[in-house]
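Minutes, methods subgroup
Present: GH (chair), OT, SY

1. OT presented the first of two proteins processed in the latest run. Sequence and structure tokens recorded below as shown on screen.
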Amino acid sequence: MDSNSARLAEELRDLADQLRFLEATLTSSRTRLTGNQCVLDGESIDVEQLSEFKSALDHARHSVWALIEALAGYSGHTVEEVLQDYRMQRASELLQTLRGEIESPTTPNSVATRTFLDEVQIVADLAYRRHMR
């Protein structure tokens, strides 16, 4: 193992330890939720900060998952191909779940619903054109 690989392995161990500590801290009895903030030992963390951290963590988690999947059985595929396959699988599961809810007469006619449906239509149109060539 060269020095760069050893350094990366050490950084991964350190990050894992930091994430375990953070999870324990955020879920401890010292953490209070007030309004739009999380308060820990008198220090406020607003929703935007938590959302930004969550987004970065989600992206890293999905990338690591794809790398592990690629190593475990997707030999010959790139990490990006495995990630795309995973995203398609998750999107399919989400759409299956939402199908029943959208057919329901109680589905709200909200901006979020319209935006989501617009995006689904765009992706469906692009995929249809690509595969009908």
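2. SY then presented the second protein from the same run.
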Amino acid sequence: MGDAGIIFICQSKDLSHVRELDLSWNEISDKGLQKLASCNSLKNLTRLILNSNKIADSGVQSLSLSENLPKLKFLELAYNRITQFGALSLVRSSHLKRLSLLDLEMNQVGEKKSNEFPDGTSIPDLKILNLRKNQMGNDAISDWSQSGIFEGLNHLNLGWNNISDAGAKVLANSPTLNHLRDLILDSNHIGDPGALSLAQSKNLTNLKILNMADNNFKSSAESVLFNLRARSLAEKITADKNLNLNALYLRNKDIKALSYYQKLEEVRSISLRNNLFDYQGLGELAVSAFVKDLKCLNLMDNSIGDKGAFLLSKSEQLSNLEILNLENTGITSVGILALSQSPYLKSLKDLNLNGNSIDGKGFQLLADSENFKNLKVLRVSGMSIGDKGFQSILNSKTLKKLEELEMAENFISKKSLSMLTKSPVFPNLTKLDLRRNRLNESDQLFLAQSSSFGNLKSIRL
């Protein structure tokens, strides 16, 4: 589109209906942006995206002085040519009063030292500031911090800059960062002194996420940082004593730090779904002194494998577990053997094994072990085990308390349906899930319409 396209649109179109405008990758320069800033029909615009153009300081300065963008909340200018003065012009704009997000990733902020500081105070509504992949060093961090630029922010991304210990100490000692919840400092040059300053800061008391990956600190500082990480994770405990840590990229060291934190003893349910730890991290949690009252543990989508199942089986600390989710965790029948012989896991009421590689032997262990006699819910979908596995469950003399059975996607045929009503498991069964099996329409009608299955309140086919 270029500058000519921007000029044409602003002169010939009424843009008063536009709420979001994306002009990325259009070779727009300062000239085009100056024209856009002067367009008086953009008063309802809330989001402006200008990533990957040729915009420099004079262009963004025209934006900062524009009176035509009173409702603008989100401004994205990643991958342009903006330096420190242009960035500060935006942050201190007296006209962009409602701006809450400013993205300046991959610009030239900090490349050259500047003694020019625009007048004014920072935008009070600005909560998210992204300065990732610029060239901000310790001097720039000091200048910005002392000028109150970071005041009021909830999220500050300074990853991939040139910050070392001195800059980290400035951040740690800055009272203007007391509202900060997320601080991203990965891929800088921070060593032990800077890392320890951040971890022990009295100003970063509201911090929930501190990303310090790929820096220069050693094991002693790393330990302190992981302790800080554990404390911030534990702050997620809800009023009903649940701790949801799903999809937070937690690794073994994160789980280890969490397992040492005494506040964990308040938790009754932990969900760790979709993280990056394996059996080693689980092993630390399994021997923690603070999980004795844990009732529910969700390990779904973590690669703990059979070694993880073995560590669970040996955990006296987890003997009160009633709900265990092991869906898609790489467990085989070897892991089921460990669980079935555990001297501690005898209180399980809800067991999810969906998406693992359990064969006929594993199903037979599930059917026979006294450890599973209290199960009310069993989920074993996606095993492709066929009628043999289903019949193992149906013939079980220990699973008599089972109320819900999920066996979707297992190649089960009508052959097994005739056995269902004669099964020791059947009397208490109220929910049955047999989706994506080898049941044709007549088989499904038989199951749905037969009076023999009247006690089943829910049948999923």
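Chair's summary of item 2: The first helix runs from residue 2 to 12.
Next meeting: continue with the remaining queue.
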